[in-house]
Amino acid sequence: MRKTLLLALTSSLLLGEVEISGHFDITSQFYLTKPDSKHQNSFTAKQILELKYEKDEITAFVKLYAQEAYYDLKGSSEQTKRSFARIDEAYLKYDRDNDAFEIGKSIKFWGALELRNIVDGFNPNELRDDLFITNKLGVWNSSYTYFTDNGEFSVILKLFEQDQKMAESPYVYYIFPDAVNYNHNLSTSKGELRPSIYLTYSGSTDTQYPIDYAFIYENGYDSQRYFSQVVNNPYSYVQNAYLVEKFMTYNTMVIDATLIKLEALYAVVKDDLYVGDYSHVALGLEHTLEDIYDGSSLGLISEYYRYDTYEDNKYTDLQLFETMQNDLFIGARYSFNNTNSSSIIGGVVYDLEYIEQTYYAKYESQIADNFKLEVDYYFIEPSKKEKTAFSLLGQHQRVGVNVAYYF
Which range is least confidently modeled, 2-6, 117-121, 226-230? Predict the structure, then answer.
């Protein structure tokens, strides 16, 4: 019986196309300015493996992720609990000429801006990883997509609300004080199995100044969450998810060498005691100067973010740890346009309300055929007057180096 099943599976695979890819990363970070109780560095190995099988209209995709942290090999007092393995994606997709159906675990990306995509809330982020990178957790969902002449309409059903684990306090990006414990079991208003439904429409125009646009409606759990004390335990906190009706959009327009970007959302909160209705809007401009030197180009970037709440006696942006509530980003991207695809991007984020700054720079380059190098620098000067999310981190300065092997 086993031989028969194995032969059947082998035969079916031979009739389709299988792709295997991935990368192996080694990341080193050195914290030049940090709280005394935190590790002065971190060394992390990451492995990503992707398997894709295609046959006629059927696509099967699996993405595996594993991470190992150096300090987890040491004594219990120094461990950060940043070593784990997970299945990021595992889905089946059926494509036809005019529509497609997908079911399983997947990651979806929405947004247009450079610094932060405020509408990209379908997948929660991994809280055991670097604060300044995007490392999304896959979520179980099913979707149906219908393709029009110049766009597509989708109905997406998120089947399960994903909780977020957090590293232990020796890690520099553990956001609570050392004496406070984080309970990763998500508290929800209607249970984790209450589905969230999304209706999306995206398209583009074929005009003199092309526009890409997308509109999203959600009825379900908000991507914004808040923390509260566990009952009868003032030293333990839990994350809370609540229901919303949410209206989102992200758009780009190209005018000659200038790219205009807009992301916006409005959330109507359903009967939560602590969170009221709110909006978040971000506008960006990117102008590219071509052939600066030896074929290189320079992109000049500016973005402004505004977050507002609309109900008195409910949580403000400070209590919700919102870092982009009245912030201006000024930056630049220099692309060498060489065979190594080398680039440098950086800038400053200035909080116009709480007077804090974040400076960063990142260099990326391909090495040989299969290696990629990234070097980054961050410096955060937190607010001296308000208890912002960055003030909990304190003044922070770090240098990071990442080397990845792709196959």
Answer: 2-6
CA distance 143 to 370: 35
Q: Which long-range contacts (CB under 8 A, 24 or more apart) does 371-374 make?
A: 371/403, 371/404, 371/405, 371/406, 372/23, 372/403, 372/404, 372/406, 373/401, 373/402, 373/403, 374/400, 374/401, 374/402, 374/403, 374/404
Cβ–Cβ < 8 Å for 248, 227 = no
DSSP letter for 72, please: G
Instruction: Give the integer Cα–Cα distance in Å for 301 and 387.
Output: 29
Residue 180 CA, distance from chain mean position: 25
Instruction: Report the pLDDT averaged over residues 215-227.
Output: 98
Domains of the chain (ranges; CATH) run 16-406 (2.40.160.10)
Query: What span, in angstroms and rounded, lies between the C-alpha atoms of 328 and 80?
Result: 33
14 backbone dihedrals φ, ψ, rounded to 5° = -65, -25
| Distance in angstroms (rounded) separating the CA atoms of residues 96 and 378 | 46
Percent with pLDDT over 90 in the chain? 91
Side-chain-side CA neighbours of 357 within 13 Å: the count stands at 6
Check pLDDT > 80 for residue 2: no
Write out the DSSP string of 229-288: EETTEEEEEEEEE-EEEEEEEEEEEEETTEEEEEEEEEEEE-S-SS---EEEEEEEEEEE
* pTM, rounded to two decimals: 0.92
* Cα dihedral value 182, 188, 194, 195, nearest 10: -60
Closest CA to 225 of 214, 209, 238: 238
Helix (H, G, I), strand (E, B) or coil at 39: coil
Tokens of 69: 């942290």
Burial group, residue 294, by CB count within 10 angstroms (0-12, 13-18, 19+): exposed
pLDDT, tens only, 11-66: 555 567 899 999 999 999 999 999 999 999 999 999 999 999 999 999 999 999 99
Residue 86 corresponds to which tokens in the numbers above? 């997970």
Phi, psi (deg, nearest 5) at residue 112: -140, -20
Measured distance CA(27)–CA(31) in Å, rounded: 13
